[in-house]
Design brief:
The structure holds two protein chains of two kinds.
Chain A lengths: L1 H7 L14 H25 L3 H17 L8 H51 L2 H11 L2 H12 L1 H17 L6 H4 L5 H29 L15
Helix pairs in contact in A: 2-4, 2-5, 3-4, 5-6, 7-9
Chain B lengths: L5 H21 L10 H14 L5 H16 L8 H18 L7 H12 L1 H12 L4 H24 L1 H10 L4
Helix pairs in contact in B: 1-2, 1-3, 2-3, 2-4, 2-5, 2-7, 3-4, 4-5, 5-7, 6-7
Classes of the chains: A mainly alpha, B mainly alpha.
Chain lengths: 230, 172
């Protein structure tokens, strides 16, 4: 039972869903329920006004991280964002109300803001990407779901294309290395040597995918059919 | 007006992907708030410039917002969608009101500045929801929006030459 629950809510990274057994549908519903639950948690963070409430929400978020067996390492970048945000908000509060009256409310607001986006992060980091796409397919029109799923699926290919174009342009002398981009004078190189060829390549890619989809009679039926293994 | 084709939808989807990839690449490396608006405005305007449909930029914004929400990128939780959709709607309205904007640096900069200034609205809404002090909300929203507008204008200024080159290559 415990294993089954873990599979349903995407706790097991190995879980892919077995075609023909109904697991995929149940999996989509479970992921949808998980998304809804975490969104509710995020909305609670908007409504909470007391430090006790925030402590409770922090506890629930930490418990979820523990339940989903994800360490705190993946939150490292988010902690940086939290600290940066806290510095800005607390500084504004201190400037307005002084040290004593400004520090605590500023820190509380920053804490509350962070708790609004931590549930979303937990969802993403603990749910396999195919399950997310499948869940979206259940709620948006099939054409939009196809475009979204295709674009997400082609990210690795696009990244490879970008890397190839980038390396080629660097060899040609374009000033688009990271240290060059710190100087805004080099930004035109980034646009004309990298963004422009990437846009042209993505247009060609869109044309090729459309041709392939039409060759497979995409759009012929009102309801999308899909190979169970995808 | 004919229905948006699959190729156009896919291109808009790729523009949304570029927005997300650039956000991921730029995140925190400069340490300046609002710098992601450079790529956001650039790709939203390119999407509208390459696909001359009423809601081309809004569709790109919707894709980007939904994917960002699903991938947990950026601050805002469930309100992340409006961060993308609001500027995209401004771009669409701007392109509808000023059909020749993609040939003019000034008009592109103007529309980009207006679209980027919507960061003020989403920061305001977000801070209001968590009951921040009203005076601080305005200051915080201004601090967030001012650099976003500057970077948005910079991104918008690159659009007319890119559109011109795409036209000369015969791609659009």
């Amino acid at each position: 039972m415990r294993i089954r629950l873990r599979q349903l809510f995407g706790l097991s990274r190995l879980y892919r869903g077995q075609p023909g057994t109904g697991n995929r549908r149940i999996g989509s519903i479970a992921v949808g329920a998980k998304l809804l639950g975490l969104m509710v948690l995020s909305f609670f963070a908007f409504g909470t006004r007391t430090s006790a409430g925030l402590l409770w929400l922090t506890g629930i978020n930490l418990a979820l991280l523990f339940v989903f067996r994800y360490g705190f390492i993946f939150l490292r970048r988010e902690i940086k964002v939290f600290l940066w945000q806290t510095v800005i908000i607390v500084s504004l509060y201190i400037l307005r109300f002084g040290w004593i009256e400004g520090f605590k409310p500023g820190a509380m607001i920053s804490w509350q803001l962070s708790l609004t986006y931590v549930p979303g992060l937990i969802f993403v980091k603990t749910t396999p990407q195919p399950r997310i796409v499948e869940t979206f397919s259940a709620v948006v029109p099939y054409r939009a779901a196809f475009v979204m799923a295709t674009c997400l699926k082609f990210i690795p290919l696009i990244l490879t294309e970008i890397r190839n174009i980038y390396e080629g342009q660097v060899f040609r002398g374009a000033k688009i290395l990271r240290k060059d981009l710190l100087n805004p004078i080099n930004w035109p190189d980034l646009v004309f040597c990298l963004a422009l060829p990437v846009i042209i390549r993505s247009m060609n890619l869109a044309g090729e995918i459309t041709l392939a989809a039409k060759a497979r009679n995409f759009g012929l039926k009102k309801k999308r059919t899909c190979w169970p293994g995808i | 007006m004919t229905r948006i084709s699959l190729k156009e939808s896919l291109f808009l989807g790729f523009c949304a992907v570029f927005i997300l990839l650039s956000r991921a690449a730029l995140r925190l490396h400069l340490g300046i708030s609002g710098h992601v608006m450079f790529s956001t405005m650039f790709f939203l305007l390119i999407a509208r410039g390459c696909v001359p449909r009423f809601f081309a930029a809004t569709i790109t914004g919707l894709f980007a917002g939904t994917a960002a929400m699903a991938l947990g990128m950026g601050k805002g939780g469930p309100l992340l969608l409006i961060k993308f959709v609001l500027p995209a709607m401004v771009v669409d309205i701007g392109a509808m009101a000023l059909p020749f904007m993609f040939q003019s640096y000034l008009l592109c900069a103007l529309v980009a500045a207006t679209a980027a200034s919507t960061k003020f609205i989403d920061t305001y809404v977000m801070d209001r929801l968590v009951s921040m002090n009203p005076d601080i909300i305005l200051q915080h929203a201004f601090l967030e929006a001012a650099p976003a507008v500057l970077f948005g204008v910079a991104g918008g200024l690159f659009v007319p030459p890119v559109i011109r080159r795409l036209k000369s290559y015969g791609v659009i």
